[in-house]
Specification:
heterodimer, A: alpha/beta, seven-stranded mixed β-sheet, two-stranded antiparallel ribbon, 8% strand, elongated, B: alpha+beta, SH3 type barrels, six-stranded antiparallel β-sheet
Chain lengths: 594, 76
């Protein structure tokens, strides 16, 4: 099979071209020796199957950023027929450096000058003949987004493949010597590109005057974030609820009756273990799809890097950047898509630090638990204050965690981001993005979530003769073992069992308490109010807020970090933090005589 | 001659030298920051935040800590 490697700098519309070329059939895959997933697709081009690989955007062939290492490693190990180099036609003054460097690798190239329509509007004239000569590769003008020039580009692709039917390795020696191309670049640019001396003030400049205004910028940022948040979760939550309802309905109406004849253990496994696991995975899908569609708008419109610009003064002190802040805010809805969203950060250290703090965002699942508990135990007049204090706590812990760990996860890549012109993504692209992210989540995190749910099911249901979630089950015994650790927090073993359930998904804590005490709704509220005083209750709330991320979050962290060590850190750090905070609060409050 | 972080919004100049390591210099070059390029400061982020600069047809943000290593000949 033939293979094409797609190369280019960030923000050139390389992915847009990839999407147009390959449609929805692209898959995320592993390559030997390469630590990040690469998107690739097999397409039929003139009766021949061709594999197209979308390599990460890079600024330089010889640099040492993580993306640059990935690209170099790929080109060193994988033979290809052809490089397709996508360049932004408006920025050829600097982007031509990349094909000049690639030329030295000795492989055939096709150069695509994308956003040719924008360049024309700006009055930039490009001498493609001269470029073709200088680069020794055919050059096509293209607008990948709107499709003009696409057919010609595709045809050129097919022709080049016919001319170069053999897979070849890049010239390895060329990776070593860092050729100085400064002079060559300057000559090439001055000979082939004519730019008007006075650039007209663009629409982007005018929008930025508001968006990045010294006083208006930040309020606008928070308004936009609020809007994005509302869109994601007001559209996503009902969909999530109806999926939950559907799964519950099918379970009661169909699965449970069908399984009555099975032996007790097997029936329980199927109905309460495996099936609930699948239901948990499915319930995340709507929010992930919508999240990615909204985030694609925020990112591709160019606003995400503006958000980074606005928030940087604060975030840089925490070792994070503004994009981390955006993801953390989104984490207040659900941590899972927020973790997935950290993919926009290209530095591993920065990404990991962000993934470490996101689970401390008070997500909507925890909110459900808090609302129930607070209304059960606290007076209506203090309830809002209690909830507010938990949100405040969430922010404080995020900052604290970032400050403590920023030294360990220090990014060595300085933050230099392009602020691209504002652009609207096409609807087609949004659908594709939503579809792809759902598939990605299912494929990688799905199996972990199901396995985790089954594990918790086993803990809380074995031995099968015992009452589920009672003290006689494995979970009950575990809670007894943990009693010396948990009682200084004011938490008894029944509450500990509920916390074990909460590991699956935080909102299950209430349902678990209903099972444990054998009563639900108002009865449960009254019982909790009787059993717990406010100090114990608040200690429990603090613990629930902070302790281990839920299974889905954890599975996503594992999938995105590809490191068990880091994943374990994201389990144990919050657990430790939860214990310390609850301990300090509980013992402090008791010590003060409450 | 001065350093980029000393420039105020709407001031322009020509990049004289990048006083950074080879790696960062390459990265900067990829973004268009190379000796000889004309650079203009567009604005500065809130709370003394990063700088938005324009080089050629590219707008980018960079932190003051990086800007301090770029020496610039001011345009008159």
């Amino acid at each position: 099979m033939k293979r094409i490697a797609l190369l280019g700098m960030p923000n050139t519309g390389k992915s847009t071209f990839f999407n147009r070329l390959t449609g929805a059939g692209a898959r995320i895959g592993n390559w030997p020796g390469i630590t990040v997933d690469l998107l690739s697709a097999k397409i039929l081009l003139n009766d021949a199957m061709v594999e197209v690989v979308d390599l990460p955007g890079i600024y330089n062939m010889h640099g040492f950023s993580e993306d640059e290492l990935v690209v170099r490693r790929f080109l060193e190990t994988q033979p290809v027929n052809l490089f397709v180099v996508v360049l932004n036609a408006c920025q050829l003054d600097r982007q031509l450096a990349l094909p000049l460097q690639l030329k030295a690798l000795g492989l055939p190239m096709l150069i695509l000058l994308n956003m040719a329509d924008e360049a024309k509007k700006l009055g930039i004239r490009i001498d493609t003949e001269r470029l073709t000569q200088a680069l020794g590769a055919p050059v096509c003008l293209l607008s990948a987004k709107f499709g003009s020039g696409f057919d010609i580009a595709k045809q050129a692709l097919a022709e080049q493949l016919k001319l170069h039917p053999k897979l070849q390795h890049a010239d390895k020696a060329a990776f070593q010597h860092d050729d100085s191309i400064e002079q060559e670049l300057a000559t090439l640019v001055s000979q082939s590109i004519a730019t008007p001396i006075q650039m007209p003030a663009t629409v982007t400049d005018r929008i930025d005057r508001f968006m990045l205004h010294p006083w208006l910028g930040l309020p606008l940022f928070f308004a936009i974030m609020y809007l994005a948040f509302q869109v994601i979760y007001t559209v996503g939550a009902p969909l999530q609820d109806s999926l939950d309802w559907l799964f519950g309905y099918l379970k009661d109406a169909w699965l449970a009756p069908a399984a009555t004849h099975l032996p007790l253990g097997l029936r329980s496994f199927l109905v309460d273990g495996l099936y609930d696991g699948l239901g948990t995975v499915a319930s995340f899908l709507p929010i992930i799809v919508i999240f990615f569609m909204v985030m694609a708008v925020v990112e591709d419109s160019g606003y995400l890097s503006r958000a980074a610009f606005l928030m940087d003064a604060l975030m840089s002190r925490l070792g994070l950047d503004g994009r981390a802040f955006v993801m953390q805010l989104m984490g207040f809805g659900c941590n899972v898509p927020a973790i997935l969203g950290t993919r926009v950060m290209r530095s591993q250290a920065l990404r990991r630090l962000t993934m470490l703090v996101i689970p401390l965002s008070l997500c909507s699942a925890r909110l459900q638990v808090f609302l129930f508990f607070i209304s059960a135990v606290f007076a209506p007049s203090t309830a809002p204050l209690v909830l507010f204090s938990l949100y405040l706590m969430s922010f404080v812990l995020v900052f604290l965690t970032a400050l403590i760990w920023r030294g360990r996860y220090r990014s060595h890549e300085p933050l230099m981001l392009e602020l691209p012109p504002y652009r609207l993504p096409t609807f087609r692209f949004l659908l594709l993005e939503g579809w792809r992210s759902a598939g990605h989540f299912l494929k990688a995190a799905g199996i972990f979530i199901v396995a985790g749910v089954v594990l918790v099911w086993f803990l809380t249901h074995y031995p099968f003769e015992a009452e589920p979630a009672s003290a006689a089950t494995l979970a009950g015994r575990l809670a007894d073992l943990a009693a010396p650790v948990m009682s200084p927090l004011g938490l008894d073993s029944l509450l500990s069992i509920a916390l074990i359930f909460g590991f699956v998904a935080k909102e299950i804590v209430i349902g678990a308490l209903a099972v444990i005490y054998g009563m639900g709704g108002d009865d449960l509220s009254r019982l909790l109010a009787q059993k717990l005083d406010w100090v114990q209750a608040y200690s429990f709330l603090l613990f629930t807020l902070i302790y281990t991320p839920c299974l889905a979050t954890l599975s996503t962290i594992k999938q995105e970090s590809k490191s068990w060590r880091f994943t374990l850190l994201t389990v144990f750090w919050p657990l430790l933090l939860a214990w310390v905070v609850s301990f300090l609060f509980y013992q402090g409050a008791r010590g003060l005589g409450f | 001659m001065t350093h980029l972080d000393q420039l105020k919004p709407s001031m322009r100049g020509t990049i004289h030298a990048l006083d950074v390591g080879k790696d960062l210099a390459r990265r900067m070059a990829g973004l268009g920051l190379r000796p000889g390029s004309t650079i203009e400061v567009i604005r500065v982020g809130p709370f003394n935040g990063p700088m938005q600069v324009r080089v050629g047809h590219t707008d980018l943000m960079l932190r003051r800590s990086e800007a301090a290593h770029i020496s610039v000949c001011l345009a008159v």
